[in-house]
Amino acid sequence: MLSKKILITSISISLIFHVVILVLAGIMDMSGDDNGKAFMVDLTEPSKNHEEIIPGKAEAKVSPIEVRSKSEGDHSAKPRKREDTVSLDSIDIKYCSYLEKLREKIRGNWSYPQEAYIKKDEGTTIVKFSLGEDGSLRGLCVSASSGFNSLDMEALDVIRSSAPYAPLPRSFNLSKLNIVAKFQYSLTE
């Protein structure tokens, strides 16, 4: 019985000691005072009247970053624009049917470049492209080259010529969808 009392007493002393250390270190606020404000940095694009032109540089503009307290309230803030990145071959249930339609549209326009076919050039080009909410092409670049300009250019051209794409479904809740597509050029005999 005495050993249980010693154990309980030592645990209680240890807990009190740790709470005191945490309070002194400022990790725990035991006063109940909620005057400490958390700050958020808003990286959304500011309105045009917030832009400043850098002296001596006519084209360069600097937009200040707005810092505001969380306690000011975000109740009236606009919903943040969201984006996601997926592979064109993704089997993610959320994107599967939309990506299948994109694949069909792209495959219908894709061909082996004649110059590369004659030279027997083979390789894989990886392209990243971005679609806006309305299905418009917002960005396009080669992420990994096949090593042959004609193959890389064909991959870019097929993405461009297939645009515009179907609008992003509302269920995606996205303003932009980045898609990584792999174009494998192979001559099999």
What is this structure's SSE topology?
Elements: H1 2-25, E1 39-42, E2 52-53, E3 61-62, E4 66-69, E5 83-87, H2 96-109, H3 114-119, E6 123-132, E7 137-144, H4 149-162, E8 176-185
Parallel strand pairs: 5-8
Antiparallel strand pairs: 1-4, 2-3, 6-7, 6-8
Account of the protein in words:
- With 189 residues, the protein is of the alpha+beta class.
- 31% of the residues lie in helices and 24% in strands.
- Strands 5-8-6-7 form a 4-stranded mixed β-sheet, covered by helices on one side. It has a two-stranded antiparallel sheet with strand order 1-4.
- The termini are far apart.
Structure, briefly:
With 189 residues, the chain is α+β, with helices and mostly antiparallel strands.
Spell out the key features of this protein.
31% helix, two-stranded antiparallel ribbon, 2 domains, 4 helices, Fusion Protein Consisting Of Minor Coat Protein, Glycine Rich Linker, Tola, And A His Tag, Chain: A, Domain 2, 189 residues, 4-stranded mixed β-sheet, alpha+beta
